[in-house]
Amino acid sequence: PVQAQTTPGWSPPPASQRCPSRFGPNDRRGYMNLLNDEKRQGAARLIRNGQVIELGRRLEPSMPFFGTRRFDQHLKRTFMNPEPNRRGSNEEIVIAEIGQVGTQLDAFPHQTIGDEVYNCVRYDDIATRTGFREMGVDTIGTVLTRGVLIDVAGLKGQRTLPIGYEITVADLEQAIARQNLRLERADAFFINTGWGHHWGTNNTEYVRGCPGIGIAAAEWLIQREPIILGSDNWPVEVAPNPDRNASLPVHQIALVVHGVHLLENMKLDELAERQVGEFAFLMQPLKIAGGTGSTVAPSALL
Ligand code: UVW
Asked: If you take atom 4 of ligand 1, which residue's CA is the nearest one?
């Protein structure tokens, strides 16, 4: 049975309660402030046999898209040198919302509460014709940290949790206990819902909705101080929200209220199948100037 945890009628905390952020009024990095050299060294020490598990999806025009997003890719033959060497050259033109397709990391200004982004910075004060003057995805930088996989689908013994299932705090606690995991400060937390099985096999179903965390689970996770929350579904959070009036509230909680990045459309099946709960996590967001997000190809290093 679906145990809804979202309080009906939820609305985001007022500015007086969320600003300044815990990192001060001028902060623009949120929980990324917790990622330091020591944490990166600790993550590197988790690399034992050098294996790589890719956590990113292949970008292609036929992949699932939220709403009107697209990734149109056209092969372009650009050049053919005549004799003697007859060198040919090929490229492609891609027309895409490149920050918001495929496996993708959300920067803070991707979402607002009214006209405010993270730390009560006003949208109008940082938005330009091309992007944001502050907090763009180009400012995040390389992420090397400890990753943990919280396997809720595995806990339930299900290939995938059902659409619209709101993962509860109890689910998280039980999954963590079953896997004998520890959640540590500045980790990247990833939730396996199993929904990723629909990617590429039933794209219509994939974007129709999904299981995921709701407000209570998101707050519980953020209390454990992650720098990223990620999942194998398109919004990280449950969709539709059990509170039908609430539109993607976890987006606001993570990106706007607290300053925690979201990582969507992850490929988590191999980690889950191999029962890998802890690993070194490596990701380099694209340097899209002022971008709202970036498609990424993250990896788990074992
Ligand atoms: C959704 O897909 C709605 O989430 P995001 O906008 O963060 O990509």
From this structure: 235
Tens of pLDDT, residues 224-277: 999 999 999 999 999 999 998 999 999 999 999 999 999 999 999 999 999 999
Percent of the chain residues topping a pLDDT of 90: 92
> Would you identify the CATH topology of the domain 15-59+98-301?
Glucose Oxidase; domain 1 (3.50.30)
Residue whose CA is at the smallest distance from ligand 1 atom 1 = 235
Q: From the CA of 255, how far away is ligand 1's center (Å)?
A: 12
Domain ranges across the chain: 15-59+98-301
237 close to ligand 1 (CB < 6 Angstrom): no
Mean pLDDT across the chain, nearest whole number?
96
List the residue whose alpha carbon is closest to atom 5 of ligand 1: 235
Q: Which atom of ligand 1 is nearest to the CA of 251?
A: 7
pTM of the model: 0.96
Backbone angles phi, psi at 290, to 5 degrees: 65, 20
Closest CA to 297 of 259, 263, 251: 263
Cβ atoms of 104 and 296 within 8 Å: the answer is yes
Q: Measured between alpha carbons, how far is 183 from 15 in angstroms, rounded to an integer?
A: 29
State yes or no: ipTM above 0.90.
yes
